[in-house]
Amino acid sequence: MAEHLIISISGMRGIVGENLTISVATDYGCAFGTFLRNKEADKERKLSVCIGRDSRESGEMLSSAVAEGLCLVGIDVIDLGLVSTPGVGIMIRQLGCVGGVVITASHNPAQYNGIKLLLDNGIAPPVGVAEQIKRFFFGKRFSILDSTDIGEVSSNEQTDTTHIAKVLAIVDKEAIAARGFKIVLDSVNGAGGRVTKRMLGELGCVVTAINDEPTGLFAHKPEPTAENLKGLCEVVKAEQADIGFGQDPDADRLAIVDEAGTYIGEEYTLALAAKYIFSKRSGKAATNLSTSRMIDDIVEKAGGRVIRTAVGEANVAGAMLEHKCIIGGEGNGGVIDLRVGPIRDSLVGIGLVLQLMAETGKMISELVSEIGGYYMSKDKFAADKEQAEQIINSAKEIFADARLNTIDGCRFDFDDGWLHVRASNTEPVVRVIVEATDKSAAQKYIGAVSKIREMISGETTDA
Ligand code: MG
Known about the structure:
Layout: E1 6-8, E2 11-15, H1 22-39, E3 48-53, H2 59-72, E4 76-82, H3 85-94, E5 99-103, E6 112-119, H4 127-139, E7 153-155, H5 159-168, H6 173-179, E8 182-186, H7 192-202, E9 206-210, H8 230-239, E10 243-247, E11 254-257, H9 267-280, E12 284-288, H10 294-301, E13 305-309, H11 313-323, E14 327-330, E15 334-336, H12 346-360, H13 364-371, E16 375-382, H14 385-398, E17 403-405, E18 410-414, E19 417-423, E20 429-436, H15 439-462
Parallel strand pairs: 3-4, 3-5, 4-7, 8-9, 8-10, 12-13, 12-14
Antiparallel strand pairs: 1-2, 2-6, 5-6, 10-11, 14-15, 16-20, 17-18, 18-19, 19-20
Magnesium ion binds near residues 107, 248, 250, 252 and 253.
């Protein structure tokens, strides 16, 4: 049976031609456009939405279908073409659009694609707004106009130029260029290759680019994990490069490989970016509950504060705007700097890490070891919402002395680590993330959760 079309706050994702079809995409465009028209007080105002796509082969087709839907309800569409997700986020504000659409399934395999929605501030809709758009979509409540009032499509090719200029404005271009860094870039044949190569060139780097053709034919599994970036590690070693960068297909996530060809883990991307930012000034940082404590160590040392949010990029970006955070992001390699845009951006991550290397004169492995690290383990298992709640309640009894944060499931903080238990928003599973000073400390918490699971599934079976 075909997998269900997943509709969440960040848009929809499905398998092209199976459940994500042209008509679904057109309807989704109509739904988003109807929502945007309804919320606009000035009914006469011409509204425009920009649309971009990653390199998947189905991108152009789905982009046209969404654009058709938007035009049908009277929204003008600015087609940005093949660009990164952060690129679309930036152009929304640059062009004064009321929203943006990105055709991408991010790190999912090639048969998937998705339609990601962004509001005028460049952030995904909050839960309540996403629900409204979903209701327009399922109810097919579209305000379709006469042919004389429908929207028009135009194109704009300024995304890369605008994006690069914004990132270069937050780093010292000359200081980085003076180092002549040797870099290997793996863009997995996604949307990141063209713009990132150009930016690195402007930063005076010597670049060896692999998988840099935006064909959408992913050269390896697209999620930038250790297992999937083995090829990048080898090239970094062979080329004796200073650093390796791995992007996901829509270039919002960044993984780093050190000069020895060792994958250092996506959690370090945000930690390194924060290390640079907090070496200059103090303030607040935001990240989700599932992200490593490394950022707390860095921020606390600088006298700053970390705001922890529910999981979801929009939650982190929203908190950053609310608390005027100087850096933020997620442990999956997503770095957000509001000076560029309230969206995860691998180019921002690259810029800040190169700046840190340029200023300190240190190798990336040295900077990583200065940050130190923890043992982290992630697990998920089948459980419904009720079971998830039972697990969390039992854990609260067992870990009565822990400091709790209950904004998204429950995070238990201990002196030697933390445990985050939460029900997934998109599938009936519970996710458990543990981080501790060492493996044995982590095992203690993992073991406790396993015991609770056994107890609860036993009770469920007996009932
Ligand atoms: Mg992505």
